Amino acid sequence: MTKLIQALTVSTSLLFFLFIGAINFIEASEVSDLMESGNQAFTIGKYKEAEETFQKVLKIEPDNYLASRDLAKVKIELEKFESAVSLLDNLLKLPIAKGRNILVFIEGDPESHEAELVDETVMVVDETAENENAEFNKFLKDDAMEPVPHYRVNLSKSGVMKLLPKSKTRIKYSGIPASTRDQVMALKMTAQKKLISTLPGEPNEEMVQIKGGCFQMGSTVGDPDEQPVHEVCISPFKMGKYEVQQKNFQKVMGTNPSQHIGANLPVDNVSWEEARDYCKKMGMRLPREAEWEYSTRAGTTTEFYWGNRVTGKEGNFCDHECELSTREPRVTDGFKNTAPVGSYPENPFGLYDMAGNVNEWVQDWKEVEQNYYRVSPKNDPQGPRSELDTCSGAECVGAVSITIKMFRGGAWNQRVVEMRSANRRQAHFQLHADGVGFRCASN
């Protein structure tokens, strides 16, 4: 009697595992069919149908990152941008899968198997279907069996390479593959930019009236191009209170080259030409280099407009959270990348982020044949070769002396020292670089 009970128990357990396995792979087969249907609907523009299909997949497999990614793509097409960003943010919280290590669940087998995914899609005839339907297949022509998608995997325990039909196999990563994460990040940027384009309101640059005056331009503790320190007098003008925000730039220019997306973040990765054109469309201009330093110093004579030391509360630079080699690990400024404009205290003239966040293009060319600081006029210096200010595109391409423009202020991805009021940097006028933005000025 005891042996009979034990036998029944074993049989019941086996049936239970087979039953669970059968349920899992009815679902796996259904998921495979749904994913294919969803992608087909997306391809032909039936976005509502695709949305409903991918939602069904996620009800069966809530952790199916491919379904979440594809659903986000559909949401973007349906202009449900906030929903798309939410989906993509959840995916970006997942760890990056190490290599191509996966768990494999095979139809009819209640156990999972550790494996390496060699190829995600291999189109071959399903041999298991041939064996299962041998009686029926003898009535078919030899070429009647169509190739179907398979996974090519290397089973860790046995070391055997296998082709497994996707309709009968489910795979699970420990996270998301790095390549998929890159796709997710690109999709998020697209959704965020489209979301910005839906924001109400007209672009507007808030300006601050800067009183004229004289100051000592340059520094004795910086690079050679910051010397000699010389007196400069500036006429009254207006300066942008904030760095140009993405919501304004995108509305005016119809594009957004920024690497870190947000309506109130400063536009970055922008060329000098694009900065000039934006200001011109807004009825303004880029500030002259002397105007920029005068309004940054705002009557101060210290290395930074708040003093000679940095605590992390004054501006945005490559701090403890920054992942670059230029990071300052001892200080935290509160932001890993760019910060919303106005996140730090203003300078004495009421201007925000004149130090850090993003570098700011100015109007001036870089003089390479001589040190402009030695020949600069005292009153309202226009910078070297100011007669070339109207050239653009191919007209400007040529000698180095007319292709290099100045930028100022330091950025989230640079060292603390770059935020000094006198610090000068330069780049090709058509350069797009992460951490380079601008603000506008006017007479």
Could you characterize the architecture of this molecule?
- The protein has 443 residues and is α+β, with helices and mostly antiparallel strands.
- The protein has three domains: 2-97 and 178-186, Tetratricopeptide repeat domain (Serine Threonine Protein Phosphatase 5, Tetratricopeptide repeat), CATH 1.25.40; 113-169, no CATH class; 199-442, Alpha-Beta Complex (paralog of FGE (formylglycine-generating enzyme)).
- Helices cover 32% and strands 17% of the residues.
- The protein has eleven helices and 14 strands.
- The strands form four sheets. Strands 4-3-2-1-5 form a five-stranded antiparallel β-sheet.
- Strand 3 (147-155) and strand 4 form a beta hairpin.
- The model is unreliable at 7-26 (pLDDT under 50).
What layout of secondary structure does this protein have?
Elements: H1 2-43, H2 47-60, H3 65-77, H4 81-92, E1 101-106, E2 112-125, H5 127-132, H6 134-137, E3 147-155, E4 161-165, E5 169-173, H7 178-197, E6 207-210, E7 213-217, E8 230-234, E9 237-240, H8 246-253, H9 272-281, H10 289-297, E10 359-365, H11 372-375, E11 404-408, E12 425-428, E13 436-437, E14 441-442
Parallel strand pairs: 10-13
Antiparallel strand pairs: 1-2, 1-5, 2-3, 3-4, 6-9, 7-8, 9-14, 10-11, 11-12
